[in-house]
Amino acid sequence: xxxxxxxxxxxxxxxxxxxxxxxxxxxxxxxxxxxxxxxxxxxxxxxxxxxxxxxxxxxxxxxxxxxxxxxxxxxxxxxxxxxxxxxxxxxxxxxxxxxxxxxxxxxxxxxxxxxxxxxxxxxxxxxxxxxxxxxxxxxxxxxxxxxxxxxxxxxxxxxxxxxxxxxxxxxxxxxxxxxxxxxxxxxxxxxxxxxxxxxxxxxxxxxxxxxxxxxxxxxx
Length: 220
Fold this sequence. Notes:
Layout: H1 16-28, H2 40-47, H3 51-63, E1 67-70, E2 74-77, H4 82-103, H5 109-127, H6 131-148, H7 152-173, H8 180-193, H9 197-209, H10 212-218
Antiparallel strand pairs: 1-2
């Protein structure tokens, strides 16, 4: 669908990060569809910022694989590329395994409680078929160990590649196949509570590999 007509979505006092997040989220949630042309003028009007943060945001989005640019000709929302999504899945899954490995020895009761609360919100969102809320709760769940790992490099990698996967995960969480993630999250929490690092890492691996069958359906 075209760029939304709402003007001034992002305050003029906010810069490139806000423009990046707004365009990224519109791509991930499908507001900006695969293959859609992105015009600087339309984005400037929608976001209420100058061309500079919009262009910087588009450069970051190109690095993340969410847009494609041919200088002087066009910028489009990247089509779903199964090879790129597989690569992002492998890297993202490995980073979440590393996050659990590094965070688990220091996870406190409050952080485990935050994971349980996020999973409860996740289950409720799936029950209500609220895909946006499910994705947000899933982010909250996995963000706990990622933050507790205190590994800035790990978080930077996740920031770059997670949005690529979220475009596909919207399909999974909109179907019954996404319901299995609730039990997988419970298993991760259970192994963390037991202090079982290898068991927790294995549970995280299972959780992130559930995306692979969906990728098979996208392969021509």
